[in-house]
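Researcher: Let's do a round of design. I'm pasting the structure tokens now; please hold your answer until I've finished.
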């Protein structure tokens, strides 16, 4: 019961005959203190939720390292519908290969994910390391609505520049919600989700059980309600040692997909699954998933 409700309960009890006056004074003071503390907690979470959800790394992406440039990675730039210019890195696909568009998690920036995606570029896949507003030296502040604009801009750029209208969309952690949002409204070849959640609202409600977390949220990232409209094949990977997002979220995400979906639980893997998978089985699962789709286009 919230402290505010406790205060009302104390007042009701105080109205009963025989209630001790000193005890009443103490109870009223305690109830008022708890209520004030609860209200302060609500206000703090409301005002700090952006910093709790997003941890943007402002370091500019800068020049592409030689090892990545040799695999066709280049610095690119895209404009969003609300007028922001976003820098990102991308490797053009070899003839006949599809492109992976990768939306990273809440911390770091796109450059941090480049080593993990390098083998796919070396194999021939195109790779777009999408970058958000507020991350990687880009202007703007992170938000759910803003991330969707950023994702649309990257997919529009991909279609206009490389002629890829239905890429493989990948999302890591907070980026899984971004990937699901665009997959629900755009054609995609497949969807790969690393350590996804059903919704940020579900996570917040479990983490802050004593607060009206769902009502406080400005950024819901409600993947579970959008997934039934996603008909493309879905691969979900989750580590059983993930301490940030319980792997049951990943299982529920796979079950909610509107088309064929596969859930892979990685033993000993943390968060995110692919980057914290000592055995490397997650990358093997992704490679098999893409191969099974026969995603190579006719050259």
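Researcher: That's everything. Go ahead.
Model: Designed sequence:
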């Amino acid at each position: 019961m919230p402290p505010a409700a406790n205060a009302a309960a104390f007042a009701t009890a105080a109205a009963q005959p025989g209630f001790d006056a000193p005890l009443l004074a103490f109870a009223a003071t305690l109830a008022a203190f708890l209520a004030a503390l609860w209200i302060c907690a609500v206000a703090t979470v409301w005002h700090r939720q952006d910093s709790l959800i997003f941890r943007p790394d402002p370091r500019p992406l800068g020049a592409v390292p030689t090892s990545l440039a040799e695999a066709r990675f280049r610095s690119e730039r895209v404009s969003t519908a609300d007028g922001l210019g976003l820098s990102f890195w991308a490797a053009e696909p070899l003839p006949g290969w599809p492109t992976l568009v990768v939306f990273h998690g809440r911390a770091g920036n796109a450059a941090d994910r480049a080593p993990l995606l390098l083998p796919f570029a070396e194999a021939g896949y195109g790779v777009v390391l999408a970058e958000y507003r507020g991350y990687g030296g880009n202007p703007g502040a992170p938000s759910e609505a803003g991330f969707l604009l950023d994702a649309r801009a990257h997919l529009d750029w991909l279609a206009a520049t490389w002629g890829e209208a239905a890429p493989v969309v990948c999302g890591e952690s907070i980026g899984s919600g971004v990937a699901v949002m665009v997959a629900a409204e755009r054609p995609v070849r497949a969807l790969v989700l690393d350590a996804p959640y059903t919704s940020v609202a579900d996570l917040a409600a479990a983490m802050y059980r004593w607060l009206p977390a769902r009502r406080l949220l400005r950024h819901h990232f409600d993947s579970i309600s959008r997934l039934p409209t996603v008909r493309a094949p879905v691969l979900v990977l989750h580590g059983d040692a993930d301490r940030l997002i319980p792997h049951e979220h990943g299982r529920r995400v796979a079950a909610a997909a509107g088309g064929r979906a596969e859930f892979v639980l990685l033993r000993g893997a943390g968060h995110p699954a692919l980057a914290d998978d000592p055995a490397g089985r997650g990358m093997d699962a992704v490679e098999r998933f893409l191969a099974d789709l026969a995603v190579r286009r006719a050259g």
